[in-house]
Structures are given as structure tokens and as C-alpha cells.
UniProtKB/TrEMBL annotation:
Alphabetic keyword roster: Porphyrin biosynthesis, Transferase
Name recorded for this polypeptide: Porphobilinogen deaminase
NCBIfam families: hemC
Encoding gene per record: hemC
Signal peptide: none
Requisite cofactors: dipyrromethane
Source organism (scientific name): Telmatocola sphagniphila
Assigned GO CC terms: cytoplasm
SUPFAM superfamilies found in the cross-reference section: Periplasmic binding protein-like II, Porphobilinogen deaminase (hydroxymethylbilane synthase), C-terminal domain
Membership in a protein family: Belongs to the HMBS family.
Domain called Porphobilinogen deaminase C-terminal: residue spans: 224-293
Highest taxon of the lineage: Bacteria
An example molecular function term from Gene Ontology annotations: hydroxymethylbilane synthase activity
Assembly: Monomer.
């Protein structure tokens, strides 16, 4: 029987996700016991700057990956959207359990939908993707930086008397704040982040017991969708300084991807979509990236 040490951040959302994975792993016959090991990441330690100003890459995941490499933990539980697509020698992304809703939520105590916001209203979000898509639709809005965990952001909405904030539906639902959602934003215009709503399970590639256990809790539909999204992001090479949004619609045999690359001010938006066989997700993602690059995303990514 295997003992599995799960590496996780200590935020409420990360612990919810890690406990959810621990529960799933305890059902696996080869797994004897599961333990959580809390790890502080750069993203947790530095709360006063937008992530895009922190050198970006892997601020919520790097320390957990180091713990895997140092054999302090056996499995890393990540919010997949925080996990860079760059390959790390010795580690492997093995599985993604069933995904939560992928979209973003508008939360306001003053207006009952996003489109009711008056000219000049103040919204909190520090995600470049959300900023650019909001500005593309509503260039008049006043966007202010909002960082911190989900509960911190909900508190700032009240304390700073903001007109609204935008958060991922997934985090709100998992933490029991679904009733705070004012409007589920239409992914038609507010395209989600790559991997949003999915939990990514990573381990050392030579850890056969962990690999086998993780494979049994994979959800193939989610896996195909996130592989397509991540291969698109990798091919775009945009890192986290270029606003990129993607919605994938996973059906039994077909996978559809709709994606956009925007300028930071939201004025330029390169959009395209693709459909194809769901069992060749990486090809689809790379093809869509190629179409976006040819249509002008190349210029935006150089800036
Ligand atoms: N970077 C923060 C982060 N990472 C994952 C989630 C939510 C859960 C998810 O989208 O998987 C959030 C908060 C948010 O964007 O509202």
C-alpha cells in the first residue's frame, strides 16, 4: 500500500482542492494513506503587486514543484491555470479530475448585470486577460488592481465600495460562495484562462505508484480539453504578459476551441476557433495557435 504526500498551497481554495484530491485518492485500492503538506509559494508571500509584475511564471507552483523534485511530496495539486506550460525536467502532469465550470463571474452589490454598469464605474481585477476583455467591451470602465485570495477579494469589494469584481466561478463554487455570483459572464466575450476550473495533478515521472494512482482519477474529457488549451498556449509562447482567453467545448467525439489574443488596452482582439477530433487535442491547440499568429497575434506577442 502506498502512502501519498500531497503538496499544496495553504489558501482556502488550494486546501479545498487538495482535500478533494485526497478523498479521491483514498478510494484507490493501491493507496493506503494520504497526507497534506502545506507549502508557501512566492505568490502567497507577495500580496501587494499584480502577478504580471512579479516576473510572472509559476509564482504559485514553483515551490511545490521543488518539493516534488526534493522528494518532500509525492503529488502536487495545482490550479491548472497557474501552472506554466514549460516542461520541468523529471516532472510530469499526469491527470485532471472533472473540471468545474470554466467561466468567470461578475460580483456586484450595486448592479444586477455587467452590462448595467454605468460609464466610468470602478471594477476590481488584476488579471491581464480580464482587463483586456473588459476594456474591449467597455473602454469607459475604470479598472483597479485587486489581488489576494478569493475571500480577500470579496472583502475588498465591500471595503473599497467597488462597483464590482470579476472572479473565476470555479473558486467561488468550491469555497461555497456560489450565492455571491451576480452574473455568470458569457464566455462568448469573456473567454476563460487556459486551464481555468481544472485541477492539475503532477508528480515525478519515475514515481510509478503515484503515476498509476493519479491515472485512475483522471477525467478524459477534461484532460483532452486542457491538453488542447495548453498546447495552444505553449505554441503562442505568450507567457502571462499577453492577454489570452480560450473556451473549449468537449463533446464525445469533437472538441471545439474558441480563443482570442488581445492587446493589453483591449483595443486589438484577434479571434479564431477550431473543431476537430477530441482524441487529437494537442494538434488542434497548435493549429489554432498557428491561425491566431497568422491573423496578427504574432505582432501582439512581440510587444
Ligand atoms: N490565480 C488565482 C486563481 N487560481 C485559480 C483560481 C480559481 C480556480 C480556477 O480557475 O481553477 C484563482 C482565483 C480566480 O481567478 O478567481
Amino acid at each position: 500500500m502506498t502512502h501519498i504526500r500531497i503538496g499544496t498551497r495553504a489558501s482556502a481554495l488550494a486546501l479545498w482542492q487538495a482535500n478533494h484530491i485526497a478523498d479521491l485518492l483514498r478510494q484507490v485500492p493501491s493507496v493506503g494513506s494520504v497526507e497534506l503538506v502545506r507549502i508557501e509559494t512566492t505568490g502567497d508571500a507577495v500580496q501587494d503587486r499584480p502577478l504580471s509584475a512579479m516576473g510572472g511564471f509559476g509564482v504559485f507552483t514553483r515551490e511545490i514543484q521543488n518539493a516534488l523534485l526534493d522528494r518532500r511530496v509525492d503529488v502536487a495539486v495545482h490550479s491548472l491555470k497557474d501552472l506554466p506550460t514549460l516542461f520541468v525536467e523529471g516532472l510530469k502532469l499526469i491527470a485532471t479530475p472533472a473540471r468545474a465550470p470554466i467561466g468567470d463571474a461578475f460580483i456586484s452589490h450595486k448592479y444586477s448585470k455587467f452590462d448595467d454598469l454605468p460609464a466610468g464605474a470602478t471594477l476590481g481585477t488584476s488579471s491581464l486577460r480580464r482587463r483586456a476583455q473588459i476594456l474591449n467591451r467597455r473602454p469607459d470602465l475604470n479598472l483597479i488592481d485587486l489581488r489576494g485570495n478569493v475571500d480577500t477579494r470579496l472583502r475588498k469589494l465591500r471595503d473599497q465600495n467597488l462597483d464590482g469584481i470579476i472572479l473565476a466561478q470555479a473558486g467561488l463554487i468550491r469555497l461555497g460562495f456560489e450565492n455571491q455570483i451576480t452574473e455568470r459572464l458569457d464566455p462568448e466575450w469573456m473567454l476563460p484562462a487556459v486551464g481555468q476550473g481544472a485541477i492539475g495533478l503532477e508528480c515525478r515521472e519515475d514515481n510509478v505508484e503515484a503515476v498509476e494512482a493519479l491515472r485512475t482519477i483522471n477525467d478524459p474529457k477534461t484532460w483532452n480539453a486542457v491538453l488542447a488549451e495548453r498546447s495552444m498556449l505553449f505554441a503562442l509562447g505568450g507567457g502571462c504578459l499577453v492577454p489570452i482567453g480560450v473556451q473549449s467545448i468537449a463533446e464525445a467525439e469533437t472538441l471545439t476551441l474558441r480563443a482570442a489574443v488581445l492587446s493589453q488596452d483591449g483595443r486589438q482582439r484577434i479571434y479564431d476557433q477550431i473543431s476537430g477530433a477530441s482524441d487529437r487535442p494537442q494538434e488542434l491547440g497548435a493549429l489554432l495557435a498557428g491561425k491566431l499568429l497568422d491573423a496578427g497575434a504574432k505582432q501582439l506577442l512581440l510587444n
